[in-house]
């Protein structure tokens, strides 16, 4: 493998990943409205809330509406997908695109242009995976959701497990070391980035603030989406 190409693939992924879809859409839709430094996700009819200092598709959805949040999510997926696809097209015989996919996630989480404060990386990981193995996006997401909601019955596990499952999935699908290293790398990056949320969630569960997993899932757009899908699949009972 060529060192110069490796560095170029890494830089391209990071710089493109650093583009904040949430901030871009915010400035286009609400140019006169300051971007919030924090977002408080409050459970309807309760004083319970989670506070996040991220600027993500979930934050856009909370403040500007679900359609703009979804648009930010799609753009976050596309920015990584397109950069990974470009590198793969240029160097089809070498796994340079896996480097682009990894640094794209890093750029999304720690963007160069915004003081290294971005989102958490799930959408960016899926963006790379749509090029690497699109079937794996759906297989691992569903498997992670079932594992988190049915086996462990924990919302945070349901959120993260789909990415955890990329490790056995890509090894099973390819039996190639570069793919396995990619899966391990994005898991390390995501789990390091999610440490603040993990600490908050552990505190919440110890304090017993939420008696049901479905309650906390209502706090964010992604959580509500997972809850809706899980309810349709019969993994979670529909609340009266």
Tell me what the structure shows.
The protein is mainly α. It has one domain. 70% of the residues lie in helices and 3% in strands. It has twelve helices and two strands. The chain has a two-stranded antiparallel sheet. Strand 1 and strand 2 (49-52) form a beta hairpin. Helix 1 (3-17) runs parallel beside helix 5 and helix 5 packs across helix 6. It starts with a helix and ends in an 8-residue tail after the last helix. The mean pLDDT is 82.
Strand tally is 2
Q: Determine the oligomeric state from the structure.
A: single chain
Number of helices: 12
- Overall 3D geometry? globular
Order of helices and strands: HHEEHHHHHHHHHH
Strand order of the largest sheet: 1-2
Category by helix and strand content? mainly alpha
Low-confidence stretches: none
Distance between the termini: 58 Å
How would you sum up this structure in a few lines?
This protein is mostly helical. It has one domain (3-232).
